[in-house]
Amino acid sequence: MSQEDASLEARLEEQETFEPPESFVEQANVSDPGIYEEFEENWPESWERAAEFLDWDEPYDEVLDESEAPTYQWFTGGELNASYNCLDRHVENGAKNRAAIKWEGELGETRTYTYGDLLNEVNEFAAALRDLGVEEDDVVTMYMPMVPELPIAMLACARIGAPHSVVFAGFSADALATRMNDADSEYLITCDGYYRRGDALDHISKTNEGLEDVEHETETVVVDRLGDDLDHSLSESQHDYDELVEAHAGETVEPVSRDAEDMLFLMYTSGTTGKPKGVKHTTGGYLSYVTWTSHSVLDLEPEDTYWCSADIGWITGHSYILYGPLALGTTTVMYEGTPDYPDKDRFWEIVEKNRVDVFYTAPTAIRAFMKWGKEYPERHDLSSLRLLGTVGEPINPRAWKWYYKHIGGEECPIVDTWWQTETGGHMITTLPGINEMKPGSAGPGLPGIDVRIVDGAGEEVDAGEAGYLTVQKPWPGMLRTLYRNDERFVSEYWEEYSDPEADEWVYFPEDGAKIDDDGYITVLGRVDDVLNVSGHRLGTMEIESAVVGVEGIAEAAVVGGDHEVKGEAVYVYAIPEDGYGDQEDELEERAIESVEDSIGPIARPEEVVFTPELPKTRSGKIMRRLLEDIASGNELGNTSTLRNPDIVDQIADQVEND
Ligand code: WT7
User: Fold this and answer.
1) Residue 311: left (phi > 0), alpha (psi -120 to 50), or beta?
2) Centroid of ligand 1 to alpha carbon of 418 (angstroms)
3) Among 275, 282, 388, 435, which one is most buried in terms of CB atoms within 10 A?
């Protein structure tokens, strides 16, 4: 490192606050600090500002209806169509030839869909879905990787008022079946396979395996991604995507006017119990909210080329690859593959080639980039970038600064956006044209978002003290319920801090956090038994039940341990059944296989540790905290309150020796 570089690094390391560059502020969509007050004074009518981004077929009567709280209703009486708002109106307004989706295939091929192209293909596929029998309110499942047919299918569903339920393609056959059964979903859109690091992966076999466990008849549409690279045959209830679209070439389908509160989609997410939760999002509130936050937080404009590197199979992709950016008429980049194929500069090549203005990724990716070194971004001209974002887990100041310097060239603000599948869109973040940034702290709640950090009794804690994150007012993008499980909706999110007698409702996202004197919030992570592996939420119970399902394993505890790139990694502690003590290698293999089969490779355990006992309190509860410390290599605290303190050292020795 040169002397100049070294002093730059040292300066950066010490700097705790960063002002947004003047050049950014001057052009920012939102730069008047008065917006916070404006939202507060005029609440909830201030939310009309979000609804105004959309074209409504029927204007709404009321901004917020609280009569059924905590099932709040937004923009009641209003009617609109999401696909109309993402496509038709831009074409009508002269943007027919503007790129809507720029798709980058892993092998280097590209496809560009203008708004006009996308509208045509969505129309044709919507006509095909109708022809297959899909009716308004039927849930259509999609089990697809990052191919353009995925957003096309989602928008086609939105056009005919059929809610979609996208299952991440990396999830297992079991996970697919569970979700299709829970939603009674009789339609599935999938593909034959996809490419990963140049290899053709079979996806249709996994799909078919999942379908065997689906309890009802299913019509399936299969996209042919691999051509001759994979031989497969379709059964009678399986239709080829291209043939369907061709059969409906040139057809158009009138977008269905949906009630603001009608379901736009379902998205399943992991919780503390073994059963995933079907988070329900609506047409009016959700779409207004993601459009407003894409405008104010991501600063998107129609002229921008924007890239969010998430997978559409997660909420980040729904809100900020598809709905928000397209509702604004922006060009959204979609990348099929991995960041290190064919080389570790793939992302920067994509940024340079597409002249990306705004880039949104996850801390786990940034940590991987850091590990690979600055020479990869340095190979490319990244000067088109104006704003950077992160989401998924806390970002440590070192990674933040690396991103700021080596990707943003110290000229782009960074938005560290805290939100969840359930919140629909951003909740806590700086507004890039207004607030200074503090690496490691997401920032204040957005205008209109009333976040408070409380103690166990619900009282606000002092600045600097750790507490629980709560949201004390509703917002348009919030989930409405858990699909067909209103009871669990209340018990999961509202029971902890609300006062139902007084009709006072407080949303609890199950994160710990602290707040500083300026109202900046540092999120500390989940306080429930949910892990955050590479920014993905995994329930420990789901993994545990997969492990104890293995013959020869009597009991298991799953915890998260620190991991340099993934943030958290899955650690399994398991007790073999009598007589299986000498088969640990096979048991480990089977435990890993079982986790991959029931959830998917993302949940693959980092390590399976066999032990004759698990550390338990005198009342018989497993001491998870201790197991986490062992997995993370932390100093171990007091173990004297345990029923079996000796076991702790034994387990720790074993983890060190492995
Ligand atoms: C959980 C939600 C929102 C899309 C991606 C994940 C954690 C998310 C941040 C952030 C600290 C964060 C929280 C949250 N999280 N963003 N910027 N800083 N933590 O969605 O799967 O619903 O997970 O991710 O723990 O509760 P999700």
Assistant:
1) beta
2) 6
3) 282
In the reported structure, the alpha carbon of residue 394 is separated from the centroid of ligand 1 by a whole-number distance in angstroms of 8
Residue 172, judged by CB atoms within 10 A of its CB (0-12, 13-18, 19+), counts as buried
Query: Quick one: pLDDT at residue 619?
Result: 83
Token duo for residue 54: 């959309």
Which pLDDT does position 565 carry in this prediction? 94
For residue 430, give both structure tokens. Answer: 């700086």
pTM over 0.90: yes
Positive or negative CA dihedral for 146, 416, 73, 481? positive
Q: Longest Cα pair distance anywhere in the chain, in angstroms?
A: 74
Tokens encoding 537: 């939420």
**Amino acid making up residue 633:** G
Instruction: Determine the distance separating the centroid of ligand 1 and the alpha carbon of 452, expressed in angstroms.
Output: 17
List the chain domain ranges.
62-415, 530-657
Q: Is the ipTM of this complex over 0.95?
A: yes
Residue 619: count of CB within 10 angstroms of its CB: 6
Nearest residue (by CA) to ligand 1, atom 14, is: 420
Rounded Cα–Cα distance for residues 609 and 651 (Å): 8
pLDDT score of 592: 97
- Which among 307, 557, 320 is positioned nearest to 426, based on CA atoms? 320
CATH match for 530-657 among 3.30.300.30, 3.10.520.10, 3.30.420.40, 3.40.50.2000? 3.30.300.30
Cα–Cα distances in Å, from 569 out to 172, 249, 272, 598, 608? 19, 48, 17, 17, 12
Task: State in words which class domain 62-415 has.
Answer: alpha beta
Q: In a 3-state reduction of DSSP, which class is residue 277?
A: strand
For residue 617, list its beta bridge partners.
Answer: 642
Positions in the chain whose pLDDT score sits under 70: 1-2, 4-5, 657-658
Q: What atom in ligand 1 is closest to the CA of residue 536?
A: 21
Fill in the DSSP letter of residue 482.
Answer: B
Asked if 380 and 348 count as a contact pair (C-beta separation under 8 A), the reply is yes
